[in-house]
Amino acid sequence: MFKKPLADLKTSAPLRSSDRRKLKQRVVETYSLSPEVGDLLVPEGLLTQNDPLWFTLGKGSDELIPTVYTLWKYPELLPFLSTPSAVVPKLIGGADLMIPGVVQHSPFLHPNQLVSITQYHSYPKLGPPLAVGRMAVSNDVLNRSDRGDDVKGKAVHVLHTWKDHLWDMGNGRKMDVPAPREVVEREQAEGATENDAKQQPVGGIQEQIEDGTGAEDILGGTQPEASGSGTQTQPATDAARPVMTTLTPEDVSHCLRSALLQALQTTLKSLPPPSFPIPASTFWSTYILPSRPAYALGTNGLSDSNQIDIKHSTHKTVKTFLKAMAKEGLLKLKESKGDVLVTAVYPAHPAVGSHRPHRTVQSVGAQREKAEERERKEKEAEEKKKGEIQVIELWKPHGSTVAWFVAAGKDTSSLYTMPDIREIFNTYVSSKKLINVQEQQYINVGEDPALASAVSAKNEDIPEFMKREETLKRIRDHMQPWHETRVVGSDAVRKKGHVRPIFVTVKIRQGRKAATLISGFEPYLLQAEELAEELRKLCASATSVTPLPGKSSDLEVMVQEVD
């Protein structure tokens, strides 16, 4: 959105106190914040701080969208999605966040909702917001991807990022990226004063769970009733991080039963009869543990899957748990010499049909591994690119083409790539209505003096029309050729003229030994001694560097075949 510098900026003026109070009130009401947080996000002396804190899009729009500066002050303001570090530069470059790039996300998301994008860190850390955007899909689509479905497309339409031109309007160059923050534990929240508790953001997962909304989306199935009247929470946005609690033994037992139902809906459903009987330990580790919910909703709130362990349940042992499930009719057991075997399962049980799928430990782990593998491959690709040499062909307006570039409103002293020239040409012929009506592939060059002069050769009549590709080719041929050589980690070098190829010749010397001669590598920023040393290692041969015959300034590398 802000890939280019902002144009037509009006002169800045201090915000009157009354206008600041109105803005603060809008922020507090829009995002359901306390007045204290409103003062933090709409502070006194907005202009003197020089950091853009809020923006709107489109004429007449009154929607206040926070910038990354604002989110760094109050990260909990918006729901979040996390993505691997290798994706962040692509977002800064103007790309939207794709569904496969989402590793973690807040629950209860819906299309067009404002969200923040963070860099992924392993639990319990959560990275700082680095981008702001709108959801392109619902939470259900992301959950399908979490479960391993091949879901593609955009997850977030990015509006503003760290290091874009809106960010550059502030003091961002002097600021360090905040360190990842820890997920707040329940014990810490309970130790806060009443006043602090009012200011503590409790939106997102925690808010919707405590009032009963969307609980099944996290755990699946029927949830245990909370004891007592619950905690009255202050409304907030569907924002950020879960507040973790300790599960009761009843909660753990419920989660383990939900894990069995999940397994019966998925992996156990397709298991062939010859697979049975299955030892209890194998059944437990292969089917129950991977199907545990990634986040568990208990009596006291939300907890992570690490607490869902048989020792913390009311059953205490795997054998007791399986017997309880067999009594319910979900599976069939057989005891043999003190060991318990699972002889059958019943996916058609009504409890299995009424169970709502949840995000499992296995799916989260698989997605995390996939993201880490993708990040590793991208890092390896970046490492490989560090030694790569990039050569870009450029052209500069020259001779008869200068007048055409002036007519197109372009700088005649700049250098252009072929895609740049094509874009200028297409815009020009469309605006001048030079495309032939009968044959769209032809351009009526004779109707425009500047274009006709740019494509005409010496002693040639001005053509009435010409094919589009031929017209482009002639414009390019009449421009002055340049080239740019770039090596990762070094400054680019631009030179006039076409880039010269590297010459590699093989000569047979005395004793019928072959010698490979390499020359013309200087334009590619290669040093003769370094090239000779690298070839010596790669080819396991003797190498030498000598002046090129007839050109004392150029060098030649010889690779000598050895026995």
Walk me through this protein's architecture.
The protein is α+β, with helices and mostly antiparallel strands and 563 residues long. 33% of the residues lie in helices and 20% in strands. It has a 6-stranded mixed β-sheet. A 4-stranded antiparallel β-sheet has the order 21-22-24-23. Strands 11-15-14 form a 3-stranded antiparallel β-sheet. It is extended, with a radius of gyration of 33 Å. The model is unreliable at 185-243 (pLDDT under 50).
Summary tags:
six-stranded mixed sheet; extended; 563 residues; single chain; four-stranded antiparallel sheet; alpha+beta; 21 helices
Topology:
Elements: H1 17-31, H2 35-41, H3 46-49, E1 54-55, E2 65-66, H4 68-73, E3 80-83, H5 88-92, E4 97-98, E5 104-105, E6 114-119, E7 125-126, E8 129-135, H6 139-146, E9 154-161, H7 165-168, E10 181-182, H8 186-190, H9 194-199, H10 205-210, H11 215-218, H12 249-265, E11 278-279, H13 280-288, E12 295-298, E13 301-304, H14 318-328, E14 331-336, E15 339-345, H15 350-354, H16 361-385, E16 389-396, H17 402-407, H18 418-431, E17 442-443, H19 449-455, E18 466-467, H20 468-477, E19 480-487, E20 493-496, E21 503-508, E22 514-519, H21 528-539, E23 542-548, E24 551-560
Parallel strand pairs: 3-6
Antiparallel strand pairs: 1-2, 3-5, 4-9, 6-8, 7-10, 8-9, 11-15, 12-13, 14-15, 16-19, 17-18, 19-20, 21-22, 22-24, 23-24
